[in-house]
Amino acid sequence: MQSWLRRKPLDMVTVHEEGRRLIPTLSWPHLVALGIGAIVGTGIYTLIGVGADKAGPAVLLSFVAAGIVCACAALAYAEMATMMPAAGSAYTYSYAALGETIAWVVGWSLILEYSLVVSTVAVGWSGYFVGFLQWVQQQTGWNVTLPAALAAGPHAGGILNLPAVVITFLVAGALIAGTRESATINAFLVVFKLIALGIFVAVALPAFNAENLHPFMPYGFSKALGPDGVERGVMAAAAIIFFAFYGFDAISTAAEETKNPGRDLSIGIVGSMIGCTIIYVLVALAAVGAMSYTVFAHSAEPLALIMRQLGHGTAALAIGIVAIIALPTVLLAFFYGQSRIFFVMSRDGLLPRGLSKVNQRTGTPVTITVFTAVLVAALAGVARLDEIAALANAGTLAAFTAVAACLLVLRKREPNRERKFRTPLAWVVCPLAIAGCAYLFWSLPTRTQLWFAAWNVFGLVVYVLYSRGRAVLAKQG
């Protein structure tokens, strides 16, 4: 039993062999931009429509519920990331605190999370890009639209979502060029994204009509199956738009590449979470107040649609253009996190070791980045937005639960170890995070829960047959 729960010594978490060590190049402004870039994106630009379809105007409560759970998890991440400034996020923390088998399940769940998040964002970006091309054709008469077969996946009557595939490889190319370079571009684009949301709030909020909030909670609070076979309710929506809040965990994957992790990681994680919560509440309130949720619930570009319906075509165009330019910041942040999870699991021997080599010129793991690009591009080309977002949430909820548990375990096992950031009221915050994640997981669609279980059963088979015997810790005795 001990070999199944062997732990990586805390003092060895930040010790790495030559050629498999990531280079510290990031400071706290890069991390805050990485966090905001990851958090503010598809969730508010596209999934607000999906959430409104499930909860009606009470989607506002869904944002609050998801935000509370994420805030508790963010505080736990801040302590763990500053305590163990190494790449790998929840996987690395679990390896040191809970043991290898649990770490494998967490890492395998993170692979699911990041792969599907990148795919979801790519599909969301494609919706805005295709809408922009249609507008250009209407205004100019130029035939610039894509054939229907290449503008959407099979679920929408197409064959391949080509824009989603292309943007995935473009972001991969930026990451291969260098971490600091791509982080700087990301910070620049984040500013544009925040300006666009500011325009939306400034235009939509004056059109607020209280009548649009009635009935406020048409589908109830808890998850329930509607007559059309769709699971709805405030918490069913929260379980989906939870996707809109996480992203700060991508910051923790940058720990090894941060120049001053003890200070900068906590600033990046907590700062980005607070900023994004304020932004979300304002945008969601403006959206559901300006127009009946039934109008934009099924739109691939709900914010731009609301602007057009209010007669602000120029503002709609601006939001659409900025979404095209800035949504790739979400892609970049999560793609970055995905490649680092793969990288660390490879470095630990749980995945093929050849994947964890770092390019000496750029300081980036080129092989694993290309591998990740192929994987997520394949998903993005055929995936459906709401379904893959829900499945990505399942992986994230598992990771958040593990991080909160790791914090409590290490508070008991290592009470005197230095902590640059201490989570306040840890024995309240962490159980609340764990309970909240469990409830949100229960609120996910049943099919999503079954797919998540199947993914991890498959993962455990891979662990037993391949990874367990090849782990670096196994070879060390």
From TrEMBL:
<feature type="transmembrane region" description="Helical">
    <location>
        <begin position="116"/>
        <end position="136"/>
    </location>
</feature>
<feature type="transmembrane region" description="Helical">
    <location>
        <begin position="363"/>
        <end position="382"/>
    </location>
</feature>
<keyword id="KW-0812">Transmembrane</keyword>
<keyword id="KW-0813">Transport</keyword>
<dbReference type="GO" id="GO:0015171">
    <property type="term" value="F:amino acid transmembrane transporter activity"/>
</dbReference>
<dbReference type="GO" id="GO:0016020">
    <property type="term" value="C:membrane"/>
</dbReference>
<feature type="transmembrane region" description="Helical">
    <location>
        <begin position="422"/>
        <end position="442"/>
    </location>
</feature>
<feature type="transmembrane region" description="Helical">
    <location>
        <begin position="156"/>
        <end position="176"/>
    </location>
</feature>
<feature type="transmembrane region" description="Helical">
    <location>
        <begin position="234"/>
        <end position="255"/>
    </location>
</feature>
<dbReference type="Pfam" id="PF13520">
    <property type="entry name" value="AA_permease_2"/>
</dbReference>
<feature type="transmembrane region" description="Helical">
    <location>
        <begin position="448"/>
        <end position="466"/>
    </location>
</feature>
<feature type="transmembrane region" description="Helical">
    <location>
        <begin position="267"/>
        <end position="295"/>
    </location>
</feature>
<keyword id="KW-0472">Membrane</keyword>
<keyword id="KW-1133">Transmembrane helix</keyword>
<feature type="transmembrane region" description="Helical">
    <location>
        <begin position="315"/>
        <end position="337"/>
    </location>
</feature>
<dbReference type="InterPro" id="IPR002293">
    <property type="entry name" value="AA/rel_permease1"/>
</dbReference>
<protein>
    <submittedName>
        <fullName>Amino acid permease</fullName>
    </submittedName>
</protein>
<feature type="transmembrane region" description="Helical">
    <location>
        <begin position="188"/>
        <end position="208"/>
    </location>
</feature>
<feature type="transmembrane region" description="Helical">
    <location>
        <begin position="58"/>
        <end position="78"/>
    </location>
</feature>
<feature type="transmembrane region" description="Helical">
    <location>
        <begin position="31"/>
        <end position="51"/>
    </location>
</feature>
<feature type="transmembrane region" description="Helical">
    <location>
        <begin position="90"/>
        <end position="111"/>
    </location>
</feature>
<feature type="transmembrane region" description="Helical">
    <location>
        <begin position="388"/>
        <end position="410"/>
    </location>
</feature>
